[in-house]
Amino acid sequence: MASSPFSFPNMIWGHIGGSRWFCVASASLAAFATVIAGEHAIMAWLEQRGDQFHLGIRIGDRKIKRSLQTNDADEARQTMARVERRLKLIEQGDLVLPDGADLVTFLLSDGKLTQPVRVKAGITLGQLFSQYFTHLPAGSLESNTIYTMRIHMEHVKKVLGEGFAVESLKYSDLQRYVDARSNDQGRRGRKLSTVTIRKELTSFSGVWTWALRMEHVKIAFPNRGLRYPKTTEKAPFQTWLEIERQIELSHLSESEQADLWDGLYLTAAEIDQVLNFVENDPVNAAMYPMLLVAAHTGARRAEIIRSEAADFDLSAKTVRLRELKRARGKRTMRTVPLSERLTKVMTEWLRQHPGRYTFTKNGKKLTVDDASDHFDRVLAGSKWEKIRGWHVFRHSFISNCASKGVDQRMIDAWSGHQTEEMRKRYRHLFPTVQREALQSVFGG
Prior knowledge:
This protein has 3 domains: 11-108, no CATH class; 125-213; 265-441, Intergrase catalytic core (hpI Integrase, Chain A, Orthogonal Bundle). By secondary structure, the chain is α+β, with helices and mostly antiparallel strands. Helix 5 crosses helix 7 (194-213), helix 10 packs antiparallel against helix 11 (287-297) and helix 11 packs antiparallel against helix 13 (340-352). It is elongated, with a radius of gyration of 37 Å. Helix content is 47%, strand content 11%.
């Protein structure tokens, strides 16, 4: 008989110790094993199933089979020879199988491993983002911030893939993201702005920092040196009259006109007109005091929604605004003085609407969607519908303070943290300071 033909399917080949190879039909395996086990407690054999070889091992009453993941007869025979040497050592007592060890792994690794090597599956983008939002502490971020971050992460998954292995993220992947998003459609028929792309990656970076602490990743966010498309600096804030004059003289397109209205700030007189218009609205009674707070304190929409009745000290004529953006991980407050008009209106409002929160709907604190919906409804169909959201009143507050020459430090204290980029958009509104500076050069 040939020592190892390995050419017939469903045949079993094996031997014990130094004896010759045996070949029996698979149907006779049970009888074969029984005969051998009667005289020898340890044995090994090869089976050929289709074009793949399987290893069988028996030690006493234990019988195990394992695919060798090969169709090469020589390789299979060499593997079994190695296993047999280890089995003989076990039989002789020169090698001890550790308790709980996987027998085949132990034999195939020449006694070096006791269990199969298990490679930990890396976390995917989809899993990472899901875990991040699931473990986000309540109140750690504003609801609209979380809403925006979710949108940003959906774009990341769309470009890089939900199943993208997080640990494999490289600079080139982020650059690919920037390039892809740069060609996507943005507002008003234009390519997506660089500002938006940077915000998306800032959100991603925040999630990555969390992943680093959780040991899902081992390196810092690889965004250093990313190249973005050139962007146009935003125009300074301008009055209604200035914007209308530019539109009339420059024959601007609709999108260019819309860009100008984004930079609108209302003069003190125009703010009074808007407030007078809203004051008489019979449906949205809360909009008048809410807009008055925004216009006379520079409060953000979320700060107004979050405000509580106890925050208004009507005797001292001040209000404390609850911040979330000034200091990371901390709840801070800033104090802003109340104007005479705002003091009078809030005194009456709080008298008629007792409760914890300043502004409510059906007894519950207003949501961001509630505030946005009320804003759009109360100005719809009027001259003032060109006003693009609550932030216009915040910008108008800062702009009017700047135009009156109020010290920048005082404006920062009232309005909260301001970036240098944002300050640049207000600087042209400091006429007194600028005149005095120029006078110091050319005065006489």
